[in-house]
Structure of histidine kinase:
Amino acid sequence: MRKKKPSIWHRFTHFFINRLDRISLSAKLVACTLVVLIVGTVGISAAIRQMVGNYLLQKTDNELISQRTLVMRNIDVLRKADKQTNGLSSYFLQIRYAENGELTGEVATPLYPVLDGNVVSMPKLPPDDQIYDSMLGKPYTTSAVVRMATTHDLSSDSDGDDATSSETVGGNVSYKTMQTASAPWRVAAFNWVDESDKTNQRKGVVFIGLSLSDQIDTINTLTRYCIIVGIAIVLLGGSLAALIIQRTLDPLKRIEKTAAKIAAGDLSQRVPPAPENTEVGSLSASLNTMLARIEHSFHEQEQTTAKMKRFVSDASHELRTPLAAIHGYAELYTMQRDLPGALERADESIAHIERSSQRMTVLVEDLLSLARLDEGRGIDLTQSVSLTALVTDAVDDLHALDPDRTVRLGTVAFAPSGEQPAALNIVDGDMPPVTLMGDALRLRQVVTNIVGNIHRYTPPDSPVCVAVGVLPASVRPAELAALPSMDDSMRRFLDAVEVGQSVHAGTNYAVLCFEDHGPGVPAQSRSQLFERFYTADPSRARDKGGTGLGLAIAQSVVKAHQGLICASDTPDGGLTITIMLPIGPVESLSDAPDETRDEGDKSKPKASKGKWLAR
């Protein structure tokens, strides 16, 4: 089916809209303002002209009607009066006589104005046969008849008839005089009845008129004044509108320039601020918030990409080492299998291959655990877990691995800020019973990884302190989990604990502290402890069997529980790992059961000590 061609009107509209869209916003606003001003001034001027015209015309009609009685009573006087000096010379007066109620055709014009240059202007009146009763007493407008003035000698005979003789008087006539003479007339016709005659028989018809030249001149003057004032208003209003619109759109132009810089790649640019009670200010604030989030997300994406690249590189390096050992010992066995003593050398090669495969298996399992935690899988937060039992088991494992090591147990307490900053203290004694909802297997993995690092990286006779406690803090678990594992995050948590203890509100957190007195970690490296494959001493870590993934797994598990894990210096030297895990609102602490261990947790299968501590 053929497509219907657009109509001419549609194409014209489309063309006009396209051209209109290419005009700038400021030009459109100024043009709209000018159109509104022009339409407003024209409308107001037309309304004023119409109102004043109607008022003056009504005033003229009232004057004509008000002169009726005066004219009727003094017709004879007016007929004999001097036309040039009579006070009513601006009026026009014509009398048409009648006999027996019928007009006879006899006409007398005792009054008419004579203008400069002896110009006479009279209204154009209807003939006798076109004068009807319906038009009597009703003023109407008629055109003017202009002629040069003639001299009249008015004389009255015994019958009262007028005899006239004329002489044309010439002269120069100005344009203004002719314009005034050509103005239309307002005329009213009235019956002339002799009041002394009881029969009230009509003696004639009297026409009284007034020129509308003064009214027209007034209207024209008012119109010119309105035009001048309207032009001034349009020009002034357009200029002010252009300045105001330009001033108002300046922030948008600055936003446009900022957007261009951001598009060029400079995400640090921000829109200049403006009062937020204005539309531009609200837009600027929203844009700056959006830009800050975009910049933060972009930097996070860059960091994630860099970490992913480093992760892939480190994983490849870590997997390449055992694979190279496996490949090397396999080739060695192939080369030496026909030589004397090949069986003993084969056993040695197989042992090396087995150790390398075990190391690779542990590494792959840890990578798989991290991948599952990153995807939010492989963790069950619906179990009731006794943290005290988990820590006790881990301490027992540490005793078995390092019999000469002194392990001190205690309770985590809070030391408010005074002369010294707020801190966590450990009070010697039995650990309090602490139970929360979480994944028992994953939390056991966290505790065992930390204890395993203590076993691998600290001297076997150095003391260790392990403590558990419950502290209220005025920070939500989601906010705490979003914090990075840095000293500033630990300081923020301590500030929240100080507020929570003072107002007795917030969330109760289980706090686990593991203090060792080993070589410790430099301050600039502590924030990297929880990165994947990071080790403070890579060669030593490889000798000890570490993969650099233990603390990264611990951080992922803790964050999955909406908690925080941080590393800090031990006061007497060494490293302290602190874990904060949410338990519940402060109000619910008094309702918690006094169970020290989760019996269901004991029934779950427990991994061997060697396997847990190897991570």
Summary: Confidence is low (pLDDT under 50) at residues 83-88, 153-170, 588-615. Residues 113 and 592 are 116 Å apart (CA to CA). The chain has four domains: 15-66+213-266, 82-211, 270-376, 379-613. The chain is about 50% helix and 20% strand.
